[in-house]
Amino acid sequence: MGVAPTPTTVAVSSPLVRTMARDAGVDLTTVRGTGPGGLVVRRDVEQAITASDAGAAGAATDERTGLAVRERVPLTGVRRAIATALSRSRQEIPEATTWVDVDATTLLELRAGLASPDRPAPSVLALVARFVVAGLERYPALNARVDTDGGEIVHLAGVNLGIAAQTDRGLVVPVVRGAHQMRTKALDEEIRRLTTAAREGRASATDLTGGSFTLNNYGVLGVDGSAAIINHPEVAILGLGRIMPRPWVVDGAVVVRSITQLSLVFDHRVCDGGTAGGFLRFVADAVERPLPHLLDLAEL
């Protein structure tokens, strides 16, 4: 008659650890202790429980890190389309980034004065969009696409302005078609309509395609700056950071002003830094001194 094996006793750091393992159904003999002398401590049991839960859910161990896989998210639908477009942009476009800090105090004051009892003031994004469209008329190299098959840079007459919008389905870019034909009020209304439709999942394929330049207001995410990825096959994207009170030198004195950052990412095949800097400076000057620019645009 055989002799029953003697149960193996595993050294643990406390009775609580043994109870935790028993309640979770973890066999302590399979747990590698990381405490002094191989003592099994609480974190060892917690890791064993996590691994057990992952296995029970049909997950596996990540080959690179050795960690349990929490979840696998299929790269399909909108997410796959976004990944494909961004990857193509990085692979094909030799991009460069330039940026500038801008005093938006006067723009905010002017915007507040544009409100009336029968309509709200246009959004800051709509005002910046108006300046962007005007800037593209002066610097058309940034409102273009590169025809690699034909070996040409195609400058476009008119602007279809993409507005990057974060949604539950991912980042999408609804397009204000014919933005060059709109004044600020019409731009504001169309931006609001499109971004609302995009976030509610009602935007059509036409709404989300055909852009010639993209404006990205990442300031709504609470960040100051970003080196964005160009929305292929466009050749540039302008980013707007959050507007924050900061110390600023005005007429030799340090005062508190509302400061934001504009960043321009552009395709170096279509222009050099002089053109990119000229466009960025035009938009920055319009933000800092909006009244003369709006008067030039027959807005007021």
From TrEMBL:
A single MF term (Gene Ontology): lipoic acid binding
Cofactor field: (R)-lipoate
SUPFAM superfamilies assigned to the protein according to its UniProt record, in alphabetical order: CoA-dependent acyltransferases, Peripheral subunit-binding domain of 2-oxo acid dehydrogenase complex
Alphabetized PROSITE patterns for the sequence: PSBD
Ranges where the Peripheral subunit-binding (PSBD) domain occurs: 12-49
A GO cellular component annotation in the UniProt record: cytoplasm
InterPro entries: 2-oxoacid_DH_actylTfrase, 2-oxoacid_DH_E2_comp, CAT-like_dom_sf, E3-bd_dom_sf, PSBD
Pfam families hit by this protein: 2-oxoacid_dh, E3_binding
Keywords: Acyltransferase, Transferase
PANTHER family: DIHYDROLIPOAMIDE ACETYLTRANSFERASE COMPONENT OF PYRUVATE DEHYDROGENASE COMPLEX, LIPOAMIDE ACYLTRANSFERASE COMPONENT OF BRANCHED-CHAIN ALPHA-KETO ACID DEHYDROGENASE COMPLEX, MITOCHONDRIAL
Record-stated family: Belongs to the 2-oxoacid dehydrogenase family.
Name of the protein this chain belongs to: Branched-chain alpha-keto acid dehydrogenase subunit E2
